[in-house]
Specification:
The complex is a heterodimer of chains A (250) and B (194). With 250 residues, chain A is α/β, with parallel strands linked by helices. In chain A, 35% of the residues lie in helices and 27% in strands. With 194 residues, chain B is α/β, with parallel strands linked by helices. Chain B has a seven-stranded parallel sheet, sandwiched between helices. Chain B is globular, with a radius of gyration of 15 Å. The relative contact order of chain B is 0.21. The chains are: A alpha/beta (250), B alpha/beta (194). At the A-B interface, β10 and β11 of A face α4 and α6 of B.
Chain lengths: 250, 194
């Protein structure tokens, strides 16, 4: 008799509608590309993923690449469920990547292949030492600009996702794309390496601008491929199905 | 029994998680609102989420105040003030949707208010399908009603879909009937018969 395959353990995002779209959550240890143009809610969604995880006992880490974490917290939506204790007690850790660059002597315009390895090893060390189970890097695109070549970017993502997976850490790599583009990433290698792609966008319909979310791929689970409309609220990210009608993507 | 009292007592018969088509003659609009907000909701300790596309939330609050009706348990989703360039800052009792064409946002704001509500029972009042039909095609409106009402049912929330009889087409009636479990009709001739 054939052995029944055990279902993959899920990492519930805590965003009810997204967990429902993913039939229970992200398969644990997957690396997800969270992609979209500016103002589509990527950072807010990623933060909620971490906060909800920290509340449930998954130690979480946010790696900020472009803006300081202080500025991030000042500007981000004030979630009702964000207890500052989570940060004070290091259940949710916020790291400024430029500080790590500086400590490792990587604060320069372009990194070599060896330096890419050093950067990956440093991130994985922190994840291992702190027992991080959920990680967000915001954004992978900004790191990509420092790596310059597709070869180095591919190497960075491959090593990182393999290492994170081995540590049982579920991760979201935030990717920025230009409005109106059909691509899921800037350097065209990120989407092929990720286990999943969540695409966020702005959609214009008869003069109204709607924020949308669509799961393009997710290894290890069946999922809805429909487009949803989202709202960023103090109670978290809310989603409803997009009503079918004439639309133009931005 | 007053007209508002009669409507409220019919609302009392609403089974849980049901959708009711509330058809009112244009002269009985205020009686219907009074029935829902003043008598039904306060008696049953129900939080009302009032989706207004017809007149602004401020106008409704002013009317309720003038009628000395306690509206503290009513939370509004105002879909019309922005369009009239009349939306002020969001208060604790109101959320604005930029346009009555943003039907998904109506669902989202309602979901948010439901999450915030601590009341055991919740009622969503859609005022009115006639006004939403001015801004949306029947196809999209029909899709919206089906998804929205089904979603509310699944969360054990009652829905009241208000239509103004004089402004309603048979097509609009069919659309509302399709998602409703029962009809409460308030018009002059019915009133005269009682």
């Amino acid at each position: 008799m054939a052995e029944v395959e055990k279902p993959r353990e899920r990492c519930r995002t805590g965003i009810d509608a997204l967990d429902s779209i993913l039939y229970g959550g992200i398969p644990r240890s997957n690396t997800i590309l969270l992609t979209g143009s500016c103002g589509t809610g990527k950072t807010s969604l990623a933060l909620e993923f971490l906060i909800r995880g920290a509340i449930e006992g998954d130690r979480s880490m946010f790696v900020s690449v472009t803006e300081t974490t202080d500025k991030l917290l000042a500007n981000v939506i004030r979630y009702d469920f964000l207890d500052k204790k989570l940060i004070a007690e290091a259940k949710m850790v916020l790291i400024d990547l430029p500080v790590i660059y500086e400590r490792l002597g990587l604060d320069k315009a372009e990194l070599t292949m060896e330096e890419v390895s050093l950067l990956v090893a440093s991130i994985l060390n922190v994840v291992r030492e702190l027992g991080i189970k959920r990680l967000v890097i915001d954004s992978i695109t900004s790191i990509g600009y420092k790596l310059k070549t597709q070869e180095k970017i591919r190497d960075f993502i491959l090593r990182l996702s393999k290492g994170l997976s081995a540590l049982g850490c579920t991760s979201m790599l935030v990717s920025e794309v230009q409005p109106g583009t059909q691509a899921y990433s800037t350097f065209m290698v990120e989407e092929a390496l990720a286990d999943g792609i969540i695409l966020m966008g702005n959609m214009e319909r008869r003069g109204d601008l709607l924020r949308t979310l669509q799961v393009i791929k997710m290894r290890g689970t069946t999922h809805s491929r429909a487009k949803y409309v989202l709202d960023l609220t103090q109670a978290g990210v809310l989603l409803v199905p997009l009503l079918k009608g004439g639309s133009v993507n931005l | 029994m007053t007209l508002a009292g009669r409507v409220a007592s019919e609302l009392e018969q609403m089974p849980p998680s049901s959708a009711v088509s509330l058809q009112v003659g244009v002269d009985y609009y205020l009686d219907a609102i009074r029935a829902v907000v003043d008598i039904f909701s306060s008696k049953r300790d129900v939080d009302v989420i009032y989706i207004t596309a017809t007149i602004s939330y401020q106008a409704i609050v002013d009317i309720l105040k003038a009628l000395e009706i306690d509206a503290s348990k009513v939370h509004f989703v105002d879909c019309i003030s922005h369009t009239m360039m009349g939306a002020s800052m969001e208060g604790s009792q109101v959320l604005f949707v930029e346009s009555p064409t943003m039907l998904e946002n109506i669902m989202l704001k309602t979901e948010y208010l439901m999450r915030k509500s601590t009341a055991k029972e919740k009622l969503v009042l859609i005022d009115s399908v006639n006004t939403l039909a001015i801004h949306n095609s029947n196809y999209v409106l029909s899709e919206f009603l089906h998804i929205f009402v089904s979603s509310l049912r699944s969360k054990n929330v009652n829905t009241l879909i208000l239509t103004v009889i004089e402004h309603t087409t048979p097509e609009l009636n069919n659309m509302v009937n399709l998602v409703s479990d029962s009809v409460i009709r308030v018009k002059e001739e019915e009133e005269g018969q009682r």
